[in-house]
Amino acid sequence: MSTVRLESIRKVYGEEVAVDGVDLEIRDGETLGIVGPSGCGKTTTLRTIAGFETPTDGRVTFDGTDVTHVPPEKRNVGLVFQSYALFETKTVRKNVTFGLKMRDVSKTERRKRADELLELLDIADLADRNPATLSGGQQQRVGLARALAIEPHVLLLDEPMTGLDAELKLRLRDEIGSLLDELDVTALYVTHDQEEAMAMCDRIAVLNDGRVEQVGTAESIYRQPTNEFVATFVGTSNLLTGVARDDRIDLGFTELADDMRTTGEVTVAARPEDFSLGGPVDATVLETTYLGQRKDLQVELPDGSTITMQVDGDADYRAGDVVGVEIDPENVQIFPTGIRERTT
Ligand code: ATP
Asked: According to its UniProt record, which reaction does this protein catalyse (predicted)?
């Protein structure tokens, strides 16, 4: 078992509230992603688990044991950062065995474990090289092997892909994602890149302003965001204003059925794929963006609002075309207007 829990964590620096009452569980063997805008408290949360920060309030437990005041070196956490922080004067193998040496693991055992990990990460041929002679992607793999070597209670990864080129990022995220699955490591993955989190993590926590807005699988966060913030931060959402009356929502250009019988002003969050062509609403194409398999169209609705919708990549639409638009009510989310602004 290797479970990490954060209970009502608050971290205040002077006037600045970095983390404002976070409850989170990283379940045994899962990779939990934390995403959120810059400054929302991702790194502070990670550093609290590592023990580099003592929370102002709240508790951190590992398998039920309170570690809130246990120093970092006694927590057995593995860390992987954006800056690889490898020992430049040691070989790759020595970098990987370093933590084991500190823990008095025998030389034979150290070497065996290091070589297994280097093999697993496909960098066995680099064992005797110096980190300075390696590419960014190779250094990142060495960093990961070093963090995994100590068989950490929890592996903490803070923006590990930043600085790598786009193609390598895609490759590494698949490889590292499968590796973490395979090894059943309990891991926390901090990134500002929501697509990376969706691809790599079993569950994702969306942070905003020091608080958790939603925790769930990538699919549940994308399909059932609990508020406007999550709907717009994760993926693209068109926010439409509507007025709910009885069992209908009047969007101005069309109406939606509303089983929830909301009343008053509502915000309807609709994904680009929730709109289709061939419908009754006349809209004008403002801009098209070709993205290979799909094309994004910015279109202006009769009420003057603009939405982004998705069509096939080979569909031939140009700015100025008038198209018929339809909204598919199946997956749209309805929120009372104004949730995005916090009042507390
Ligand atoms: P980014 O994506 O930009 O790295 P983040 O989500 O990781 O951001 P944190 O680094 O956790 O955010 O910072 C949260 C807030 O706490 C920010 O407003 C930051 O300025 C503040 N903060 C973090 N560390 C300190 C510190 N040592 N002293 C004062 N304020 C701090």
From this structure: tungstate(in) + ATP + H2O = tungstate(out) + ADP + phosphate + H(+)
Q: What is the pLDDT along the chain (344 residues), one digit of tens a residue?
A: 799 999 999 999 999 999 999 999 999 999 999 999 999 999 999 999 999 999 999 999 999 999 999 999 999 999 998 766 788 889 999 999 998 888 888 999 999 999 999 998 889 999 999 998 998 888 989 999 999 999 999 999 999 888 788 888 888 888 888 889 888 999 999 998 889 999 999 999 999 999 999 999 999 999 999 999 999 999 999 999 999 888 889 998 888 887 777 788 999 999 999 999 998 999 999 999 999 999 999 999 998 999 999 999 998 999 999 999 999 988 899 888 765 444 33
pTM value is 0.89
Closest residue by CA, ligand 1 atom 9: 41
Ligand 1 pocket, 56 CB below 6 A? no
Neighbours of 248 (CB within 10 A): 14
CB of 39 shorter than 6 A to ligand 1 = yes
User: Residue 19 CA: which ligand 1 atom is closest?
Assistant: 14
ipTM score: 0.97
**Structural domains in the chain?**
4-230 (3.40.50.300), 236-336 (2.40.50.140)
Q: What is the 3-state secondary structure (H, E, C) of 189-252?
A: EECCCHHHHHHHCCEEEEEECCEEEEEECHHHHHHCCCCHHHHHHCCCCEEEEEEEECCEEECC
- Centre of ligand 1 to C-alpha 275, Å, is 38
